[in-house]
Amino acid sequence: MSQSENNNNTGTTPGTAETGEPHGAAARRGPFRSGERVQLTDERGRMNTITLTPGTAYHTHKGFLNHDLLIGQVEGSVVENNVEQQYQALRPLLSDFVLSMPRGAAVVYPKDAGQIITMGDIYPGARVVEAGVGSGALSISLLRAVGDSGYLHSFERREEFADIARGNVETIFGGPHPAWKISLGDFQDQVVAQEAPGSIDRVVLDMLAPWECLDAVATVLAPGGVWVNYVATVTQLSRTAEAIRADGRFTEPDAWESMVRGWHLEGLAVRPDHRMVAHTGFLMVTRRLADGVTGLNLKKKAKAEFSDEDLSHWTPEAVGERAVSDRKLRRAARDAASTVQTKRTKSKNENAATETPGGPGDQ
Predict the structure, then answer these.
(1) What is the mean pLDDT of residues 139-154?
(2) pLDDT band at 317, cuts 50/70/90?
(3) What is the pLDDT averaged over residues 349-361?
(4) I need a surface site. Which of 84, 221, 299, 316 has the fewest CB within 10 A?
């Protein structure tokens, strides 16, 4: 599938996609442009993200704001709608984007993505593979970490999820990322077929049964390389840890979860927020040992055992995964692709108008 192969923007100006529009770092600088996503904050602190489209307006129960008033404005401007309601306009941060982008599956929350990048030691230029792509939230963070000179190969079993992820990645980066390759199929089969043994620096798995990938991970991961697992339940965490210990080719796994609690700040009324982002998933990290080396046999008080009855209950529904309808997936894929296409069409029309005699470029 040609769209799933690694995309390299060769022969173009740095910071400019094949369509001529800014991408990457260049897309994050300068005035607001047509087709760009902008985060509006009203006077009560409520935020909404819109895609700038000439000739259209953002409507609320308190009037409307023409998109044309925002196009060309400097980031951080404050604008007024038709009834003098003020809005603060900024480009959405990564954390804002992943929570508002089209999705077919639950996204990896920013707090967990940050932990994966840091505790997994994902660095610029690293060669990384990941599996379950979902809606592409973690892929975006990994691509930012490895940079244009790095390499991220993502594996996804469902084509609908791959389409959604591709649209979201191209939206935030302004086009295909030069370090990204996405493939369809089961990770444990495809990764050993497509990646050379010992050629990968980091492996990140967000899937139902990561213990099934032990051999595949051990094959492609370089000695000293880091394997990060993101799982939802305690039972998944336990079985993955015991499988890693029994395998002997990895270090003793470390596991944790993170919780984020905001604070209310208003004069002397400084207190914790009533709401917090608590459990979203468990993270587990282990490292590949050298070939032929057996890991240290750390003393444990008890050894976990899993009965046949336990193993028969490993289904998505049993561990709390919510089923996603095909209709919702198709709609999310269309939304993600539409955002990219709208931006490209607007840019193409503006470039054509600039080059046409009598257009804006001749005034």
Answers:
(1) 96
(2) low
(3) 60
(4) 299
Structure-token pair, residue 151: 């390499």
Written as one letter, the residue type at 327 is R
196 lies in the same domain as 286:
yes
pLDDT bin (cut points 50, 70, 90) of residue 28 is: confident
Q: How far is CA 14 from CA 54, 86, 351, in A?
A: 27, 36, 18
pLDDT 10s digits, 286-301: 999 999 888 777 666 5
Q: Tokens at residue 300, please?
A: 């444990």
Residues 88 and 152 in one domain: no
* CA quadruple 46, 58, 100, 27: dihedral sign: negative
**Looking at residue 174, what is its pLDDT?**
84
Of the ranges 95-109, 142-156, 321-335, which is most confident?
142-156
CATH number for position 60: 3.10.330.20
Count of CB atoms situated within 10 Å of the CB of 143 = 23
44-82: pLDDT as tens digits: 999 999 999 999 999 999 999 999 999 999 999 999 999
Q: What angle in degrees, to the nearest 10, is found between the helix axes of 110-119 and 137-146?
A: 40
Residue entry with tokens 């899937």: 207
- Residue 137, domain CATH: 3.40.50.150
Q: Answer yes or no: do 82 and 166 share one domain.
A: no
Structural domains in the chain (count) = 2
Q: What is the pLDDT of residue 133?
A: 92
Pair 164, 193 in one domain: yes
